[in-house]
Amino acid sequence: MTEVECDVVVLGLGPGGEHVAIKLGRAGLDVVGIEDRLVGGECPYYGCVPSKMMIAAAHAVAAARRVPEFGGTATVTPDWGPVAQRIRDEATDDWDDAVAVKRLEDNGGRFHRGRGVLDGPGRVRVGETTYVARSGVVLNTGTAPAAPPIDGLQGTPYWTNRDAVAVTELPGSLVVLGGGPIGCEFAQVFARFGVRVTVVEVADRLVAIEEPEASELLTKAFEAEGIEVRTGATVRSVGYGDDGFTLDLGDEKVTADKLLVAAGRKANLDFIGLDTVGLGDDLKVVETDERMRVRRGASSPDSSGTTVEKLWAVGDITGKGAFTHVSMYQGAVAIRDILGQDGPWADYRAVPRVTFTSPEVASVGQSEKAARDAGVDVATATGDLGARGWLAKETGLVKLVADKKRGVLVGGCVVGESGGEILSMLEAAVHAEIPVTTLRTMHFAYPTYHRALEHALNGLDL
Ligand SMILES: Cc1cc2nc3c(=O)[nH]c(=O)nc-3n(C[C@H](O)[C@H](O)[C@H](O)COP(=O)(O)OP(=O)(O)OC[C@H]3O[C@@H](n4cnc5c(N)ncnc54)[C@H](O)[C@@H]3O)c2cc1C
Ligand SMILES: NC(=O)c1ccc[n+]([C@@H]2O[C@H](COP(=O)([O-])OP(=O)(O)OC[C@H]3O[C@@H](n4cnc5c(N)ncnc54)[C@H](O)[C@@H]3O)[C@@H](O)[C@H]2O)c1
Question: Where is the FAD/NAD(P)-binding domain (predicted)?
Fold first, then answer.
């Protein structure tokens, strides 16, 4: 066993970890990045980037199909070939991270490919090498697809997101298990390319953490495109044979050529040596303070809430929202702490999230339910997409959640084709706590989608 000294070890190089390693390397620290799969993590190779490339293609196909609604004719013959090729050429380099490794090294970092394990405070073991980090270790081990404990599922050749982005030939039919962001985004892409798709969701609605109004609009849009939606569905068993997959829902059997399991994620926290730094070895998430230092939380042997020596954590494993932008935001916070800067520290009041379906489901801050559960004296107002929506023949809505006592927005949701872009104004309003009275005095360009916010703001009973 060789011991190698350095300033910082980044264990797992997802978006946040890669950001930390590059920035600290650039700042002159001796950084070692450890990654056992691909530098950059899930987002560039199996998540955001290839899936959004697929969505862009599906969007173009769907837009072309709408030409007759507005004027003219269009014959659309979808072809998956160019999409699969573009994912290989432009998104993933055929699942090769040479460019990312070079970027890390060009910025002063050292790279070690392999599976790292904590070996006490400030220490990480990879194979025969133990890195001893003077400042400490940044954990960014991320998540992997989870498989629900359904009778018959294990051992079948079901897809996860990692298979779905690598598909070169489309199946005739697909059942998607899970109607969260991953399930819904993939379901619509494949349906738009001619696959017969059924979404099976155990909760009573799609994208169940979002506003009920959003779930309702998305379900209508799916059904209008021929996607079968089964909510409140319990899958009793999964069968697989020559005819493909059969899901037994009790009152119905759903069959398809392929099954995509998109039923949540599991944090990569098993067997990474958490016990060597005094943490529980069965954690679901790693608790952190506002500087991203790891805390001994309720599920650790010592649950005092004190911080663990020389250990930071960023990304999905912190349980603050499984998004690339959260991972990178937290990475920036950890960088500031490691470099001895004076904040700003982590604040999650205005975390945005966008599910890139058509219509997009975009939210920031608290939903109405989350705000009520948190004891906020809530006022809400909704509105449709107004003149722009009518002109473009698009349905959608905005919903605002305000704190009556403070007179500010604490959350908002926009469902529409450009929901994620319209959301930016609500992100600023929630983040900066701009009084609703001030927002009401703004100009809102006619006829934009965001003009719908003016009507909703005026509808708030404040
Ligand atoms: C299909 C899909 C679509 C998505 N779309 C979006 C989107 O549009 N927008 C968005 O914001 N988010 C999206 N996400 C979520 C986003 O991908 C993640 O939030 C993001 O990757 C951040 O994850 P992370 O930083 O926690 O690490 P991850 O990306 O999970 O990477 C962690 C890395 O750590 C490595 N690792 C784990 N354990 C070890 C170990 N012991 N030793 C060495 N290396 C280890 C892993 O190999 C992995 O590369 C999507 C996810 C999926 C699956
Ligand atoms: N556009 C984006 O930003 C984007 C896109 C995709 C994923 N993500 C991130 O990745 C995370 C994981 O996404 P996800 O969709 O896999 O997880 P999720 O946990 O958000 O959704 C999983 C869904 O599967 C359902 N489910 C679980 N077990 C089931 C079962 N046995 N039968 C039927 N349904 C079942 C759940 O009720 C839930 O609705 C998200 O929380 C999100 O943060 C983000």
Answer: 7-331
Q: How far is the CA of 268 from the centre of ligand 2 (A)?
A: 16
Provide the 3-class DSSP secondary structure of residue 312.
Answer: strand
Q: What domains lie within the chain, and their CATH numbers?
A: 2-40+97-144+266-338 (3.50.50.60), 161-263 (3.50.50.60), 352-458 (3.30.390.30)
Q: What percent of the chain clears pLDDT 90, i.e. is strictly above it?
A: 97
Contact 200, 177 (CB under 8 A): yes
- The reported pLDDT for the residue numbered 304 is 82
Contact 131, 123 (CB under 8 A): yes
- Ligand 2 contacts (CB < 6 A) are 148, 150, 177-183, 185, 200-203, 208, 235, 262-265, 322-323, 353-356
ipTM (interface pTM): 0.99
Where in 71-192 does DSSP place strands (E)? Answer: 110-113, 116-118, 123-126, 129-139, 143-145, 173-177
pLDDT above 80: residue 357: yes
Q: Which two tokens stand for residue 150?
A: 């359904």
97 C-alpha vs ligand 2 centroid, how far in Å?
26
Q: Which residues pair with 111 in a beta bridge?
A: 33
Q: How confident is the model at residue 278 (pLDDT cuts 50, 70, 90)?
A: very high
State pLDDT tens for residues 318-345.
999 999 999 999 999 999 999 999 999 9
How many CB atoms are located within 10 Å of the residue 13 CB?
32
Cα separation of 417 and 456, whole Å?
Answer: 18
Kindly state the tokens that stand for 136: 């400490």
